[in-house]
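Q: Can someone sanity-check these two? First one:
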Amino acid sequence: MREPLDPDMFDPVCPSGLTPIRFGDKWYGMIIRCLEHGPRRFSELRVPLRGISAKVLTRSLRALERDGMITRTAYPGPVQRVEYDLTPLGRSLLEPMAAACAWAEKHWEELLDAREAAGHPR
């Protein structure tokens, strides 16, 4: 049995929204991080990604699957169960994503100051 995903995994004020380094769409990197420790069901992904609608999560998962980053496995039965998991290609993004996060943390204040100077609130 896997540990449940932390509902506070993505702090609303975390640097992920500030970093100029993007991995796919707004949710792409966060979904990959949710799958870092093994396969997850759609409902499990919704816990830490509480700001995402079901429609947008579905669209993002399909894009990740199309791009070869994740696999979708449907298990037959009276109640169909679907899990999403990282492919080796998707897993290869974890290291560059960690480097981007470390960079954003190191430059957090500078990023905030730049946003503020450009007229965007902290």
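And here is the second, same format, sequence then tokens:
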Amino acid sequence: MSEAVITDEGPVLDANKLLRMRGYLDMAGFRDIIGEFETGIRQRLLNLESLELSPSQIEAICHDLINFSGTLGMYELRSAAEKLRDHARRQARAGVVSAQLDMRSAGERAIAALNTFMGGAGDD
């Protein structure tokens, strides 16, 4: 499984990035780190559901999601986070709401792809 996980909407997860990371760690350490990333992504996505976030709070959450998704090769999630961050910077409220919905969908697909990858990852 060294190819990108592809959906009808484009690449969701670049398995090569995960395989490179896996090469540096034993399986237990790899699973721990991936679990921490997944927890971090889920928490940031939950935090974005608040209607009371300021543009700077949205930008901070997006910053974390861009970093997490870049490390894991989650291209769709990274793109959605960049789009949301840009709307927040412009303080475009309608764009923020739409981008938050896109972010939720991209996040769900990214986590599902990550879980599929990890389910197929062998143990040492």
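A (reply): Looked at the second one. The radius of gyration is 15 Å. The first helix runs from residue 15 to 22.
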